Amino acid sequence: MFRYLPLIVKNSLRNRRRSTLTILSIAASLCLLGVLMALYHAFFFREATPDQALRLVTINRISLANVLPVSYLPLIRNVEGVREAMIIQWFGGTYKDSRDMRNFFARFAVEADKLRTVYPEYQIPPEQYQAFLNDRAGAVVGRPLAERLGFKLGDRVTIVGDIFPVTMEFTIRAIYDAPRDNENLFFHYAYLRESLPEGRRDRTSSFAILADSAESVPRIAKTIDDMFRNYPDQTKTDTERNFELSFLSYLGNVKLFLIAICGALTFTILLVSANTMAMSVRERVREIGILKTLGYTPSAILGIILGESLVISLLGGVLGLGLAVAICEALSKSPILFVDLKALHVPLEVAALGLLVAALIGLVSCLVPGWGASRRSIVESLRFSD
Q1: Rounded alpha-carbon distances, angstroms, from residue 64 to 229, 235, 236, 319, 379
Q2: Strand partners, 203
Q3: Spatial contact of 174 and 129, defined as CB atoms under 8 Å apart
Q4: Can you give the residue ranges of every domain in the chain?
Q5: Buried b (16+ CB within 10 A) or exposed e, 94-126
Q6: Chain mean pLDDT for the chain
Q7: How far apart are CA 258 and CA 316, in angstroms?
Q8: pLDDT of 132 strictly over 90
């Protein structure tokens, strides 16, 4: 097989226009396939970070939109294995113009003195953190968010509430660094509470919980939910990683969607490649007859034809996966909107799977026409006219 490699490479590019178009069509499809597989890997196969593996989130069992009494917090803190717990309330609201997606970022009301304990990966200079604690209207923002919107220490930020009927004014007192989840704004829950009408105080959408060990996490989740089983507001406690994935469910069955799109793309590439290979083989039936007169065996001819198809498919696969890497790199640097894509990349196993798909497409698409052409007799091949 390898002794025919120069002939295979030369024949692969003999019709440069058709080969180029085929390579580009395979590359475009493999690029999209690679991005989708990278998204699937990032959503469902990425492991939680060591700090994230210790955290849980408790919300109302009905939905995140239903609130829980703040009075649950002391009971949660007393659960065995809970190192710390705090209120974390999504605020929402509008910063400047809501029509500009660059102005969208997560805003949370938290218990300020518990923030660095529950989220130890958030690196905040001690003097800035102390300034945040001392200012009831102070706020902490992630560095990428501060750079994107031009926030500096001491700047005033106004956010008009939508979930809550209040307008909040903050002063940037601290900027934190973190490897992920680094485009948030945190402010004092006490500041939000005192701004709300009496009837909406002492309720929160969620609690963030820090466990003493990863082994305690399942037991803590079960204990908390069992504790409030007979309360008017029942709870649902899950790991922070699963809580993040639950947001994808708002889009529907994302797993099935991604798998279906990947399957459709693969089938489409197969049809395009099969059509091209069938045309190529049909044009060369006489040439195959001449090769047989020169002593080439049917198996050698089949190997040459399959090799040509494999070269074209792999070239398209390499080009497409290269584009997928570039797209994933660009997406990982984009602002956090619905999900955090900072960790999005094309892992080696995804790249290997993409190349395997390209190779299989090349082999399968050419197998039938190649087999038929290699089994034609010399006389039949030389008499063939298209």
Answers
A1: 17, 10, 10, 43, 75
A2: 69
A3: yes
A4: 2-47+252-383, 67-232
A5: ebeeeeeeeeebbbbbbbbebbbebbebbebee
A6: 84
A7: 22
A8: yes
Contact 285, 382 (CB under 8 A): no
From CA 117, how far away is CA 174, in angstroms rounded? 16
Neighbours of 41 (CB within 10 A): 18
DSSP conformational letter for 200: G
Please state, in angstroms and rounded to a whole number, the distance separating the CA atoms of residues 210 and 119: 8
How far is it, in rounded angstroms, from Cα 309 to Cα 33?
A: 20
Six token digits for residue 185: 């704004």
Helix (H) or strand (E) holding 285: helix 285-293
User: How far, in Å, CA of 204 to CA of 235, rounded?
Assistant: 12
3-state SS, residue 156: strand
Structure tokens at 120: 């130890």
Report which DSSP code applies to 109. E
Q: Please state the φ and ψ torsions of residue 71, each to the nearest 5 degrees.
A: -65, -15
- Helix, strand or coil, per DSSP, at residue 21: helix
pLDDT tens-digit map of 304-345: 778 888 888 888 889 999 999 998 888 877 665 556 667 778
Give the global pTM: 0.73
Query: How many degrees, rounded to 5, is the angle at CA 136 between CA 131 and CA 139?
Result: 60
